[in-house]
Design brief:
The protein is mainly alpha-helical. Among the domains are: about 90 residues; about 60 residues, no CATH class. It has 10 helices and no strands. Helix 8 packs antiparallel against helix 9. It is elongated.
């Protein structure tokens, strides 16, 4: 009888231990508590890739002013020249040109032209689609590291022309025509913009002379 009581007590203790162990390990059938992310936590982010192009392909939907900072912080671009170029392009698409410049400046000088080439390849389709105003600041950034890119000169010049920045537009469009002489729509548009700038400058000069003459004419 005593042996039976010892055996029953041992079985009870073992059963209790098994139940406690099951609870602590979260075995199937045991309710668990999920911890939800706070409202400020980011959602799913692109996974880190060894290729800058792969990173950009995953990141591009978030290249806007609202999401780009948080997304890039959690999934930075590869630490390569093309990674820097794609990261700069992403921020530039979001309108954050200064941040894009900072990214390019952070890599060795010998690699900056390569990063600018990546940035140009992203900006060029935007410009070719006719959105010179949006692509203009990106092209101007490209020219800081790749000054003899004639298409960047064209798109920067046309953007500046559309914004009324005639001095810069004239400088960039003349440089473009000095490098590119194909008889196509690009040269035609550049020459037309320059003719209008010259006509506007001539009109402004005539108006200025008349104002000077009016101010300096002897009063009766």
């Amino acid at each position: 009888m005593q042996r039976f009581l010892y055996f029953a007590g041992f079985t009870y203790i073992a059963l209790c231990g098994a139940i406690l162990f099951r609870e602590s390990r979260g075995w199937p059938g045991v309710a668990t508590v999920r911890v939800e992310h706070g409202a400020d936590a980011p959602g799913p982010v692109p996974s880190t890739s060894s290729s800058g192009a792969q990173w950009f392909a995953a990141m591009k939907p978030y290249c806007n002013a609202v999401e780009v900072d948080v997304r890039e912080r959690f999934t930075p671009a590869p630490r390569t020249s093309d990674g820097a170029g794609y990261a700069a392009a992403c921020f530039a698409l979001a309108g954050k040109i200064d941040r894009a410049r900072t990214i390019i400046e952070a890599i060795p000088p010998r690699d900056r032209a390569a990063a600018a080439s990546v940035l140009f390849n992203v900006a060029h389709p935007v410009a070719d689609a006719g959105d010179d105003r949006a692509s203009g600041p990106m092209m101007q950034l490209v020219l800081e590291y790749w000054p003899d890119n004639y298409m960047a000169l064209y798109h920067a010049g046309m953007s500046e022309y559309s914004l009324g920045q005639t001095t810069l537009a004239e400088k960039h469009l003349r440089a473009f025509l000095g490098m590119y002489n194909a008889a196509d729509g690009f040269t035609s548009a550049a020459r037309d913009a320059l003719r209008k700038i010259e006509a506007r400058n001539a009109t402004d000069l005539v108006r200025l002379r008349r104002n000077v003459e009016r101010e300096t004419a002897p009063r009766p």
